[in-house]
Amino acid sequence: MSLSLIGLITILIIVALLISGKVTPIVAMVIPPILGALLAGYSFTEIGGFFGNGVSSVIQVAIMFIFAIIFFGIMQDVGLFDPLINKMVAFSRGSIITVSVGTVLVAAIAHLDGSGASTFLITIPALLPVYKRLHMNPYLLLLLVGGSASIMNMIPWAGPLGRTATVLEADVTELWQPLIPIQIIGMVLMLGLAVLLGIREKRRIIRKYGSLEVAAALEATAAAPDASASVQTGQANGLARPGLLWVNACLAIAVVGVLVAGIIPAGLAFMIGVSIALPLNFFKVNDQLERLRAHAPNALTMASIILAAGLFLGILNGTGMLTAIANDAVTILPVSIAPYLHIIVGLLGVPFDLILSTDAYYFALLPVVDQIASGFGVASLSTAYAMVIGNIVGTFVSPLSPALWLALGLAGLEMGRHIRYSLFWIWGISMVLVVIALFIGII
């Protein structure tokens, strides 16, 4: 059995297990890749090496997970987000559609630094309580934030365009300029999607509770059974520190600012933040330990999932499965469709995101598709734009995205349910953008 076939089957099994919800993500990302590596002829000693390489690539992310979740959990306990929640609810007047549209705009602004992790760290803790207060589906929050951030991810200082520029040996800023109209159109589509899904969500809430007023009057904690039970508002659990509101706000802004600026590693930034937040808000050691015990289960669960994902990625990269999939994917296609290969791959960009890492897609698949398409007179830039536009929208619906796991951990959500909820809409926007790019001449 070829290496690419083993890799493809392994990834499909993992995605199927995640979507099914029959097993935990740890099981899904540990057993199948190990069996795949053994089937490909690798020994346990070699698999151990892949594990070491994979874990070393995600250990910083795992550390960030632990302390970021604890930090934002403490901030929520002490009521930092309560004024924002109340203001946003008052501004929206309980309008589900207004909140949905606002989510897209906030996420777009938050992603100006090009970092998916910081975008989720800024948006999820602040907006999730609003969704819970209004009894909105938290998976809608993740869809809107992820979709908006993905479209903004076309900026030159984000990863995908930098990788594309490296492959084409082109200037990344010049590569980005023709994509600006696509970004604008994409954001308009996301706003339209926010309105559409907001209307659908409003109908769901009315159908479930009878009216928006009745839903708003209920306790917020009863609305989100998927969220961690440890996440409650400060008023509800008596931990609120209104007298320290601005101090805590300055601390949170400082931590996120250091994160965005990249002065120190993100994990260290949140570690320092937790170390300051605990004694600042809770003077007794027992109270500090209680806050750690309240948020540690969710933090450690997500960190363990990230380490399992490190094994998964380590095996797929170490064995060469991802590269083999990328190379073989285009060789099996009929010759008659070769001149349109770049468009076909672009239209399938989101499904490719489910089975290929960002590096594999841009560093392995893009050069192969470009080589084949260029033989039929297709410009390399056209190939690159088709593949970037088609793939980038699905960045935060892929289990291969570390930042998405962070978002899931912050929101207390499941990968499989997120894929089921978001894939149809995200893939639809991706294909529409590819078609629009064809009509306006970018592709």
UniProtKB/TrEMBL annotation:
<protein>
    <submittedName>
        <fullName>Citrate:proton symporter</fullName>
    </submittedName>
</protein>
<dbReference type="InterPro" id="IPR003474">
    <property type="entry name" value="Glcn_transporter"/>
</dbReference>
<feature type="transmembrane region" description="Helical">
    <location>
        <begin position="329"/>
        <end position="348"/>
    </location>
</feature>
<keyword id="KW-0812">Transmembrane</keyword>
<feature type="transmembrane region" description="Helical">
    <location>
        <begin position="423"/>
        <end position="442"/>
    </location>
</feature>
<feature type="transmembrane region" description="Helical">
    <location>
        <begin position="30"/>
        <end position="51"/>
    </location>
</feature>
<feature type="transmembrane region" description="Helical">
    <location>
        <begin position="388"/>
        <end position="411"/>
    </location>
</feature>
<feature type="transmembrane region" description="Helical">
    <location>
        <begin position="140"/>
        <end position="159"/>
    </location>
</feature>
<feature type="domain" description="Citrate transporter-like">
    <location>
        <begin position="12"/>
        <end position="390"/>
    </location>
</feature>
<keyword id="KW-0813">Transport</keyword>
<feature type="transmembrane region" description="Helical">
    <location>
        <begin position="179"/>
        <end position="199"/>
    </location>
</feature>
<dbReference type="InterPro" id="IPR014738">
    <property type="entry name" value="Citrate_transporter"/>
</dbReference>
<feature type="transmembrane region" description="Helical">
    <location>
        <begin position="245"/>
        <end position="278"/>
    </location>
</feature>
<dbReference type="Pfam" id="PF03600">
    <property type="entry name" value="CitMHS"/>
</dbReference>
<feature type="transmembrane region" description="Helical">
    <location>
        <begin position="95"/>
        <end position="128"/>
    </location>
</feature>
<dbReference type="InterPro" id="IPR004680">
    <property type="entry name" value="Cit_transptr-like_dom"/>
</dbReference>
<keyword id="KW-0472">Membrane</keyword>
<keyword id="KW-1133">Transmembrane helix</keyword>
<feature type="transmembrane region" description="Helical">
    <location>
        <begin position="298"/>
        <end position="317"/>
    </location>
</feature>
<feature type="transmembrane region" description="Helical">
    <location>
        <begin position="360"/>
        <end position="381"/>
    </location>
</feature>
<feature type="transmembrane region" description="Helical">
    <location>
        <begin position="58"/>
        <end position="75"/>
    </location>
</feature>
